[in-house]
Description:
It is a single chain. The chain contains 13 helices and 13 strands. Helix 10 links the parallel strand 10 (250-253) and strand 11 (283-286). The chain has one domain (9-84, 127-385): TIM Barrel, CATH 3.20.20. The strands form three sheets. An eight-stranded parallel β-sheet has the order 1-13-12-11-10-9-7-2. A three-stranded mixed β-sheet has the order 4-5-8, with helices on one face. Helix 7 (179-199) crosses helix 9. The chain is an alpha/beta fold. The protein has helices at residues 20-30, 37-58, 95-99, 101-109, 136-152, 164-170, 179-199, 213-216, 224-241, 273-276, 299-302, 326-340, 364-385, and strands spanning 9-10, 62-63, 81-82, 86-87, 124-126, 131-132, 156-162, 172-173, 203-207, 250-253, 283-286, 310-316, 346-349.
Amino acid sequence: MKTSTDRILTTHVGSLPRPDDLVALLHKKDRSEPYDEAEFDAIVTKSVDDIVARQVKIGIDLVSDGEMSKISYATYLKDRLNGFDGTATENRAAADLLEFIDYARRLVEQGNRPSTTLEGLQGPACDGPLSVRDEAPLQKDLANFKAAIGRHHPLEGFLTASSPGVVSVFLQNQYYPDDDAYLEALAGILKDEYEAIVASGAVLQLDCPDLAMGRHIVHRKKSNSEFRKVAARHIDVLNAATANIPQKSMRIHLCWGNYHGPHNHDIPVSEILDLVYGARPHAIALEGANPRHEHEWEVFDEHPLPDGKVVIPGVIDSTSNFIEHPKLIAQRIGRYAGKVGRERLIAGSDCGFATFAERPAVHPDIAWAKLAALVEGAEIASRELW
């Protein structure tokens, strides 16, 4: 994995705005409606090539495929694995939206319905033994990205994959005897995907909102100390699933939920960061730009970044249509550099800009403008730090 050696490198969390024709096909596929598979494959291939080219053009160093082939970063697995034919029944609405219920209703009325509103993570559920249904979608993702990287020559590429823990949040267990058994089954299946991504030449990003967002959704009735035990178990399972992968070929993404809401029930990063340090991935991507978490750059005084780790703080918000001023971005980078060192820092975004294919919180044109501002801010910070 590339790191900042003579300037601050830039990246983001993975998902990027998908073209309208692809979104329409993704929804047909998700609803099991008839669609032209050859057309879908062709549009995904072109979309990946276009999205890599655009990232390179604006100056993003560590690029992704934008998650073009996926309806969302977690539920895409239901189309690739057997065992997800059930329907979720447990209400897992976010604690902050339950507290501000009128605001949550407004989100629903406006059609801006994050998966954490009143329905509470409604969707597929695991109702049978897990097994691989179709390896072709993963192989197509790897081939598309490798071809785009070869054509457009970014500094480095990364691909995202769901952690066993976040799958257990979004795809509820209705089959395995307990949470541990479900996590172990997920890890056994996902291990092959993780290893295939790294074998293709890409850095693996493990999406782990379960370690943060999970606190105020699934485990909202637990104390922080009780939740820490859950998070520690999730990390143990993740480490086992990635045991064959070099640490420097991986990064981990923490998230408190990529939705525009109060977030007043978010667990502080200080309550979980020591546990996250125990995860195998080399780099830690976390939120640092939104109003709830921007102050947490100071956490590295209490929990110094261990040797061998790199931090990827969000210095642009992924839920606001404000375009951050490059000087503000440079200031945010400077704060983190003062805590962890310039070489152990990569500038990123709080979360993805198209976590779910439909209705992203940030308008696509503004998302690209924010990423351009990220690049400019990193250039300012680099001049100040070197």
